[in-house]
Amino acid sequence: MAPRRDQLVLATKFGGNGELVPGMGRPEYVRAAIDDSLSRLGLDYVDLYYLHRVDPSTPIEETVGAMADLIDAGKVRHLGLSEASSHTVRRAHAVHPIAALQTEYSLLTRDPEEGILQTCDELGIAFVAYSPLGRGLLGGGLRGAGDVHQGDWRRGNPRFQGDNLDRNLNLTESLRQLADTEGLQPAQLALAWVLNRATHAIPGTRNAERARINSAAGSVELDADTIAALDALFHLASPAHRAARTTWPPSSKTRRPRSRPGQRHAATPARVEARRRGSTGGELVRTVVAAAGLDTSRIARMAVEPQWLHDPRMLRIRMVPVARA
């Protein structure tokens, strides 16, 4: 990456890797984590440094203060948070401006509409929607349970099981039909809807052609009628209809709990999924969009143009082949 460093906006995370580990927000952990990341990457700085999960044992002010020190040291340029509540975001932003908040958001997962989007808009924070295609459900390639192969962590996710999967697939078939009328791929329509509300979207794929299809969503302008049709189609996922929601597991044991100000829940769906798939996050260099595999010897990373913090539409992206170590 070093030869192309000035062409990339590079983001990475620290803290938690899907698990809430006491002390992961302490200043000494923050400093050690960035040094380890830069050493592995062979770089001098990263553009955006996310706190992966808020440390419940450390005040957010202390963590963000240590992250801000990394800017003064020239190791980081912008700060970000992931899966933080509105209350926590406000506390963090009061210590140092937060550039970006990354949270799951899609037609099927609408929780950020309960205050997160409004907080980001008020404070001028870029909202980065991860899993904007509902973890693959809205991408157009999933037609049945047989497409979720053995070993795929999604087999343990309730939205991919039994009646929930059947209902979700019915919704995605309706999405496909609506996309056809618009001359779009289902993924492009779903991403365009997200970009109508979020600052950025980061769909993940290992397929270069799929990455190109997804990136084209940034040039799609949806009219009011299409947006209304999508909202009507996926109304059960909206906060206003949470009581009738059937596209997320109906069991009270698995329903995402409603957060109170300052409260953190260790068993939210995103965290449960991370534990199920045994993900450590690794030292994945998140270039704000996921890697797309070209072949077995090379990886193409989708690199973001420098104006990404200011562009309210889909990020301008180019494919940058990087030799696999």
Provide structural commentary.
- By secondary structure, the protein is of the alpha/beta class.
- The chain has nine helices and nine strands.
- It has helices at 27-41, 60-72, 86-95, 116-123, 162-182, 186-195, 208-215, 224-233, 269-276, and strands spanning 11-14, 46-51, 76-82, 100-104, 126-130, 200-202, 291-293, 298-304, 317-323.
- The strands form two sheets. A six-stranded parallel β-sheet has the order 1-2-3-4-5-6.
- A hairpin with a 4-residue loop joins strand 7 (291-293) and strand 8 (298-304).
- Mean pLDDT is 75; it is low at 242-325.
Helices and strands, with pairings:
Elements: E1 11-14, H1 27-41, E2 46-51, H2 60-72, E3 76-82, H3 86-95, E4 100-104, H4 116-123, E5 126-130, H5 162-182, H6 186-195, E6 200-202, H7 208-215, H8 224-233, H9 269-276, E7 291-293, E8 298-304, E9 317-323
Parallel strand pairs: 1-2, 2-3, 3-4, 4-5, 5-6
Antiparallel strand pairs: 7-8, 8-9
Helix pairs in contact: 1-2, 2-3, 3-4, 5-6, 5-8
- Tally of helical runs: 9
Indicate the mean pLDDT. 75
Poorly predicted residue ranges: 242-325
Q: How does the major sheet shape up?
A: 6 strands, parallel
Number of strands: 9
Helix content: 25-40%
Radius of gyration: 19 Å
Terminal residue distance: 11 Å
SSE-based structural type: alpha/beta
| Strand order, largest beta sheet | 1-2-3-4-5-6
Order of H and E elements = EHEHEHEHEHHEHHHEEE
Rough shape?
Answer: globular
What portion of the residues fall into strands of 2 or more residues? Answer: 5-15%
